[in-house]
Amino acid sequence: MKEESESTSRLGGVTPDSLLHSGAEGEFTVEDLVLASGRDVNPKNLAWAERRLAEKGKAALDELLP
User: Fold this and answer.
1) What is the pTM of this model?
2) Taking the alpha carbons of 8, 11, 13, 17 in that order, is the dihedral positive or negative?
3) CB-based contacts of 3: which residues, under 8 Å, 6+ apart?
4) Domain-located, residue 8
5) Structural domain includes residue 39
6) d(CA 50, CA 57)
7) Could you tell me which of 26, 37, 30 has the C-alpha nearest to residue 63?
8) Could you give the number of structural domains in the chain?
C-alpha cells in the first residue's frame, strides 16, 4: 500500500496507467456478469448469465462495461 501511494505522489496524485485495471482482463464468474448488468443475483438471472456467457464468451462482460 505504501508503495502505491509513493508512486502516485510522485506523479502529483495521478494514478499511473500500469496500476489501473478494470478486472475484465482475467476470469470472471456468472455472478460478475449478473452484477455488471445491474441485476440481482438470483437463480433466474444466474441462468441468464450462464446462457449469455456460453453464447458470447468474454464479450458478454465487455459489452456491459464502459
Assistant:
1) 0.60
2) negative
3) none
4) no
5) yes
6) 10
7) 37
8) 1
